[in-house]
Every structure is written in structure tokens, then in C-alpha cells.
Amino acid sequence: MKPFRKADFVDPRTEYMLLQTRRQFFSRCCQTVGGCVGLAGLHTLLPPAVAQAVAAATGSDTGGAASLGLLGAPHFAPKAKRIIYLFMSGAPSQFETFDYKPGLKDYFDVDLPESIQKGQRLTTMTSGQDRFPMVGSKYAFSQHGGNGTWISELLPHTASVVDDLCIVRSMHTDAINHDPAITFMQTGHEQPGRPSMGAWLSYGLGTENSDLPAFIVLHSTWTGRPEAQALFNRLWGTGFLPSEYQGVSLRSSGDPVLFLNNPPGVSDARRRQMLDRLAELNHMQSQAIGDPETNARIEQYEMAYRMQASVPELMALEGEPDSTFELYGPDARKPGTFAANCILARRLAERDVRFIQIYHRGWDQHANLPKDLPNNCHDIDQPCAALLTDLKQRGLLDDTLVIWGGEFGRTVYCQGPLTKENYGRDHHPRCFTMWMAGGGVRGGYVHGATDEFSYNIVKDPVHVHDLNATVLALMGVDHEKLVYRHQGRDYRLTDVHGRVINELMT
Questions:
Q1: N or C, which end of the chain is more exposed by having fewer CB within 10 Å?
Q2: Distance of alpha carbon 263 from its chain centroid, rounded?
Q3: Which helix (H) or strand (E) holds 472?
Q4: Following DSSP, what letter does each residue of 138-164 receive, concatenated?
Q5: Phi, psi (deg, nearest 5) at residue 264
Q6: What is d(CA 471, CA 476) in angstroms, rounded to the nearest whole number?
Q7: E strands along 42-94, which residues?
Q8: Which run of H or of E encompasses 133?
């Protein structure tokens, strides 16, 4: 084997200088001169994160704007201060939950008419089927609330709070398979590499709690289909935004955050001293190179230090009264369950965490739907209703936006063998149901409608970009103005689409 020589290696500093952008070069030149006159003009040309880094490095940053986020303040008066996003990974069937289609009982085992399918694309899992026999829900629906909203018998607790729900039956998406569809819901783009909604809001609005991240992610155990779609940390990542805005995932067993605690033999005082010296070195590196990720690294180290005290206190559910666990149901005392995570979400909301995301998996019922779906609904039904009730009792629901839903819907036709007692459903991007509550949305309201087969939307369609634009508007953010320049163009959560659905808001 040929031995390595010193000449074979590229000095990382030289490599960085070769790869740096023109803006970084001029930024560094201005810093070297010591605050040249052109710095003020250049500051307005730089990406916001780089501008903040330059300001911090040159001593012109007071810390105010950086702590408040890019915007410093919302574009207009927000209706919500924080979001709890309950994401049902795998795509819940709208037929068995919120989109009541009683007429389907007359079409059992009848092929879906071509006039309804209209040549729309199918997944490879059913495109080879000889026929597409339709099947309605085997579960009963009944009317609830002041407006008589139809809700499945699988969701009795959710039905009890239906007057708080804004149900959207006319959602539609571009993606037909799980990973691109989940990525699209979370980031506004089917391909990986874009910032997640939580990262956008953290970047734009900052945080109101200096001891916890602005964006926290919780993963739940489930009792539905055991084989579940994988979830990748890019779903709560920052893409091209500075990494300090990424979601922090809390674990339900062991240390809530890996490497958060001091190693054996290291005291808090020694850790503080180490971080102070490390910050000095990073500031020197920032002044020399001007890479905003250096400042992001300083912030992350400091946040981790503060979290050593705040996270154990947050996770101490044993301090909750028995009435809380009774409200959230029998699984509430089990760490990692959806019920326990909903209690944590409420505790995070009390601590003004900006964006809280709970993932619940196992909703991908291609077969054995009547066996697996009731388990999923049991996992989430009482905790969802309890979360809304709990937030309302504490005066938090008015300014907390709660979102529930998955990545797409399910087909009216059966995938695989069909019997009256057992069936499955394939992916369906053309229409699905989500709901929101609190935070300025219209309670007791149902938006949009689908045809008698819940296959096509016939009234008030809501695209994923429309939903995201509306969510940002509820947070006081103009989705067309929350942008980040990357590789020569301005990016935003809603790409180049999206309209605010005012009918969903109070």
C-alpha cells in the first residue's frame, strides 16, 4: 500500500477558502479592516443568518434580533403563539374516521367506475389488480356537537370535543408514496433537503424560552400495524437553514437527550469552564472565517448546558396529579405512549416552546384494516381529546394551534382480498381529512367536501401549501415573506404556491 505523504492532504483552512462564497469573502474583508464603511450596506445583502453572524463577530449585535428570530416580530398580530402538531404517519383512512359515506354500503364489491377514477395514477401495489372493488366503512358514524358533525364510533372521545375542531375534508397532496408525502407535509417539498415547518418558525420567530429548544419532537409507541414507515431526522431538520433551528428529539427511555449529562468526574463548574474556553475558540474561528455554523455551534453548546436543568424537570411526569392521568387515559403513565407524549406536549406549551411535534406510526393499513385501525384509534382518541380539554382548562388553547393528520388518504377500493369483515385500502393523494383546533381556527366547522366515493374533491379544495400558508398566517407570518436565500434563489415553506384559507380562521 502506498504510504500517505503530507502533500497528499489539503489543509482544511485552504479548502474552506477555495470553497467560500463571494459574500463570505467580502464579509471577511470588512471584518479584517475593522468595520469598514461598506459593512452597513453589505449587511443588507447577506443572508440573514450570515448577517447575524457578522454582527456578532464585529460586536455590532445587541443580541435582541437574534434572540427573537429573523423577523424580530410577526408580520401581523398572531392568533397562535405555538403549535402542537400530531402527525399520524402512515395515513389514516378518512372513510373510517371523519368522511362519512353511507351510500357505499350499496356498492360493496362493485368496481370503481372509470368515470370516477378518470385515469388518475395508482401505486404499484394495486395497479396490477384485475379489478378495484369498493368497500365502505364497517364502523358506524353518528352526529355530534352543535352542528351535527359526523364522527366514527372509533373516535368517541374526539367526538366529545368536536365543537373545538375545524375539520378539513378536502385536503389533497402531490405525492402518492409515504416518504415523499411525509417529506412534503413537513417541508413543503417531496425531495429531502428543505427545512421543516418547525425549523422555519424557529428561524423566523425565535423562542420565548431560553432554557429549551424552540422546536421539540416526540416519538410515540403504537399498537396498530407493526410494520411502520420509517421516520428520518431530516423531517425535523433545518435543510439549508442554520442547524441551531432543527428539532430536538426527546427520548422516552434513558437520557431524554443523548450526551446531555456530564460524564463521570466532570462537575458543573468544570463543564461551564470548558464551554467558556470553547466559546472563545469558536469566536476566534468565526472572526477568522465568518461561517455562521460556528455561531450556531456556540448556541447549541449553550442550549445543551441549560437543558441539563430544564429537561429533567420537564420529563418529571410523576409530579402530575392523578386527575391528569385519568384524563389522558390508561396509557398515560407509560413513557413513550401517545398519551404520555400529549402530557409532555402540554407541559412544553406551558413553557412556551414554539413548535411541538408528536409522531404516531402504524396507520398504513393496506390489509387487515378492521384489525389494526381500531388499535391506532384507541392509542390517540382519548389523549387527543384530553389535550384539547387540558389546554382549554389552563387557558392555553386560545393561543395554541393543535393540528392532527397524516400524509394522504386511503382508497375507496380494496387492496387485496375483500370480505365483509376484512379489507385494506391503498394510498390516495386526491383527498383526505385533517383537523385543527385552538389558535384562531373556527371550532365546530367542517370545510370542503368529497364525492360519494371520497375519491375526488367537489368543494373547497385545500392543498398542502394552502394548509401551511394558513398555519403560518395563524402564527402571524406571511408565508411569502418568510424566505431564505440559498444557491441564488429565495426559498420558503410554501415554495411558489399556497394561499391562506381565511374560512378556516376566526
A1: N
A2: 32
A3: helix 464-474
A4: SS-EEEETTTTEEEETT-HHHHHTGGG
A5: -55, 135
A6: 9
A7: 82-88
A8: none
Stretch 289-308: mean pLDDT: 71
Q: Take residue 148 and report the three cell numbers written for it.
A: 351535527
Confidence label for 26 from pLDDT (cuts 50, 70 and 90): low
- Strands (DSSP E) contained in 240-339 are 248-250
Q: Which residues make Cβ contacts (< 8 Å) with residue 57, sequence separation at least 6?
A: 31, 283, 286, 287, 290, 295
- What is the spatial distance between Cα 435 and Cα 462, in angstroms, rounded to a whole number? 12
Bridge-based pairing of strands 215-219 and 248-250 is parallel
Q: In sequence order, what are the residues at sequence separation of 6 or more whose Cβ sits closer than 8 angstroms to the Cβ of residue 133? A: 108, 109, 110, 111, 112, 413, 414, 418
What is the DSSP-derived secondary structure letter of residue 246? S
56 Cβ contact partners less than 8 Å away, ≥ 6 residues apart: 66, 286, 295
Could you tell me which residues come within 8 angstroms of residue 312 by beta carbon, excluding any fewer than 6 positions away? 256
Residue type (1 letter), 94: Q
pLDDT of 355-370, one tens digit each? 999 999 999 999 999 9
pLDDT at 28: 52
Q: Is the pLDDT of residue 2 over 70?
A: no
Read off the pLDDT of residues 411-470 as tens digits, 9 standing for 90 and up: 999 999 999 999 999 999 999 999 999 999 999 999 999 999 999 999 999 999 999 999
Distance CA 504, CA 323 (A): 33
Residue 478 makes CB contacts below 8 A (sequence gap 6+) with 75, 76, 472
Question: Residue 5: is it exposed, middle or buried by C-beta count within 10 angstroms (0-12/13-18/19+)?
Answer: exposed
**Cα–Cα nearest to 192, from 131, 236, 161:** 236
Other C-beta atoms within 10 Å of 410: how many?
30
In 3-state terms, what secondary structure has residue 490?
strand
- CATH code: domain 84-259+307-504 is 3.40.720.10
Q: How far apart are CA 411 and CA 122, in angstroms?
A: 10
**Residue holding cell 381565511?**
502
* CA dist., res. 84 & res. 471, Å (int): 11
pLDDT single digits (tens) 55-92? 444 433 333 333 568 898 999 999 999 999 999 999 99
User: Position of cell 400530531?
Assistant: 86
148: left (phi over 0), alpha (psi -120 to 50) or beta: left
Calculate ∠ Cα 446-450-451, nearest 5°: 140
Q: Look at residue 20 in the predicted model and tell me its pLDDT.
A: 58
Within 128-267, residue ranges assigned H as helices are 156-160, 178-187, 197-205
Region label for 3, one of left (φ > 0), alpha (ψ between -120 and 50) or beta (otherwise): beta
pTM assigned to the model? 0.84
Per the prediction, the chain carries an average pLDDT of: 87
